Amino acid sequence: MIEKKVLRELYSRLGKEKVFSDREYMLAYSYDATAMEYWPDAVVFPTREEDIAEVLRICSERRVPLIPRGAGVGYSGGALAVQGGVVLVFTRMNRILRLDAANFLAEVEPGVITADLQAAAEKRGLFYPPDPASLKTSTIGGNVAENAGGPRCFKYGVTGNYVLGLEAYLFSGEKIRLGARTIKNVAGYDLKSLLIGSEGTLAVISKVLLRLLPLPPLRRLFWVDFATLATGAQFVQKVIHGHIQPAVLEFMDRRSLQAVYAYQRMPLSEKTGAAVLVEIDGSPAEVAEREMVLGKIIESSGPVGWTQAQTLAEQEALWQTRRNISPAIALLKPRKINEDIVVPAALIPEMVSFIEALAAEHELCIVLFGHFGDGNIHTNLMVDPADNDEMKRAEIVLDKLFRRVVELGGTISGEHGIGLSKKPFMHYQFSPVELELFRRIKAVFDPDNLLNPGKMF
Ligand SMILES: Cc1cc2nc3c(=O)[nH]c(=O)nc-3n(C[C@H](O)[C@H](O)[C@H](O)COP(=O)(O)OP(=O)(O)OC[C@H]3O[C@@H](n4cnc5c(N)ncnc54)[C@H](O)[C@@H]3O)c2cc1C
């Protein structure tokens, strides 16, 4: 619990319209997209850089934990105030400061919503590719702090591939400017990349300089149904090796389809055991060529049905179905243990069979979907926390799952980050020496461990 005089100082320096400590606000900012809940002591909404510097000055002088937060739709508990303190919410710092078409650059405040930046860029014929399924809510600051991915990252790369520069504040209140307005830049240690994916534990991001691309003139979206998970997974491999550079290669198993069709009140064919969403893009000539090759791959893969979106509205409807999977499966059981493992793409069929065998052996409901093009398998263990036996079986399954992922050369998190939820599993991927190095890096940035404490390791 922070002292009353700290609250008084926050109120007096920032004003009542930016600082809140009443129960309603504490509850609203006590959770994210995980099932965890930790109450902060105060919530502050900065509207300009000076506010950030002021809050940091107060928190560092008074030794109060500070937790940066965007939209709070993180999947690993990164924005939760595990030790109380002040949550700094960036949703009011949401201005696109500059869209520089000549240099393909965007300069934004951290609270800009991902989809808003994409829409503003598209109006100028520009393209910001990273597209987490939460893009209509998540913020650029949260995306950078988690190094968020998404469907189009298969072809275009993750958020970090688009960050050219960052402005940020250390917990001490000192400001740093990292990166440059250029694609090439090898001067000094790459601290910008260290901050990308650092989950708000090293510095508070106050401005982001992003690289944009020219908007691809054409996009085509296909939805292909398969009888079994295995035939769907084999199709994914064929598309990867088909020389058509798909922008998106998303996979959904029967359970995700059942859940999302029920959620949308649509009937699902008995024949459908899995589905794959494929998007191709490029110039008209490139798209025509890729469409022809993809058509042949589909025909030779024995689908039970397929459709191509004919209009923008149809494209959006297919995307919405894909994006509804997360909320739809959350209704299957009281709790969703949501893992986002990644294995090298060629090993997906092996990993999927392994998970299916685990589910059968331990009698657990596991739902699989995700960005199979880049090997990112969202593995959702659907459990009831009141069922002790089921929770124990889930623990065993997680242990086997992570061990296998690391054996196959993969990673325990592709895009959701470690935060609180994956913290107990870091030792599967990192040795004690490596974890100690993380701790020492954290101590250089934040010696008193007050910036987003208790996360990652
Ligand atoms: C339905 C659904 C679908 C999703 N799909 C995807 C997906 O496809 N791909 C994907 O990658 N993720 C996905 N996510 C996870 C989530 O949306 C991303 O992690 C996103 O980047 C979180 O953004 P946010 O603004 O909500 O950040 P928050 O949840 O508020 O914060 C996340 C982390 O960022 C830190 N942070 C936030 N702002 C700053 C800042 N200014 N400076 C320093 N640190 C900061 C926080 O401290 C925290 O550690 C999904 C989530 C949901 C609920």
How is the secondary structure organized here?
Elements: H1 4-14, E1 19-20, H2 23-28, E2 42-44, H3 49-62, E3 66-69, E4 86-89, E5 96-100, E6 105-108, H4 114-123, E7 126-127, H5 140-146, H6 153-156, E8 163-169, E9 175-179, H7 191-195, E10 204-211, E11 213-214, E12 218-226, H8 229-240, E13 248-253, H9 254-263, E14 274-282, H10 284-300, E15 305-308, H11 312-323, H12 325-329, E16 335-342, H13 348-361, E17 365-371, E18 376-383, H14 388-407, H15 426-429, H16 432-445
Parallel strand pairs: 2-4, 3-4
Antiparallel strand pairs: 1-2, 5-6, 6-10, 7-11, 8-9, 8-10, 12-14, 12-15, 13-14, 13-17, 16-18, 17-18
Helix pairs in contact: 1-3, 8-13, 13-14
This protein binds flavin-adenine dinucleotide.
The site of flavin-adenine dinucleotide has 36 residues, from strand 3, helix 5 and strand 10.
Structure description:
By secondary structure, the chain is α+β, with helices and mostly antiparallel strands. It folds into four domains: 4-89, Uridine Diphospho-n-acetylenolpyruvylglucosamine Reductase, domain 2, CATH 3.30.43; 96-214, Uridine Diphospho-n-acetylenolpyruvylglucosamine Reductase, domain 3; 218-323, 2-Layer Sandwich (Alpha-Beta Plaits), CATH 3.30.70.2190; 333-429, Alpha-Beta Plaits (2-Layer Sandwich), CATH 3.30.70.2740. 36% of the residues lie in helices and 21% in strands. It contains 16 helices and 18 strands. The chain has helices at residues 4-14, 23-28, 49-62, 114-123, 140-146, 153-156, 191-195, 229-240, 254-263, 284-300, 312-323, 325-329, 348-361, 388-407, 426-429, 432-445; strands spanning 19-20, 42-44, 66-69, 86-89, 96-100, 105-108, 126-127, 163-169, 175-179, 204-211, 213-214, 218-226, 248-253, 274-282, 305-308, 335-342, 365-371, 376-383. The protein has a seven-stranded antiparallel beta sheet with strand order 15-12-14-13-17-18-16, sandwiched between helices. The chain is globular and about 70 Å long. It binds flavin-adenine dinucleotide. Flavin-adenine dinucleotide binds next to strand 3, helix 5 and strand 10.
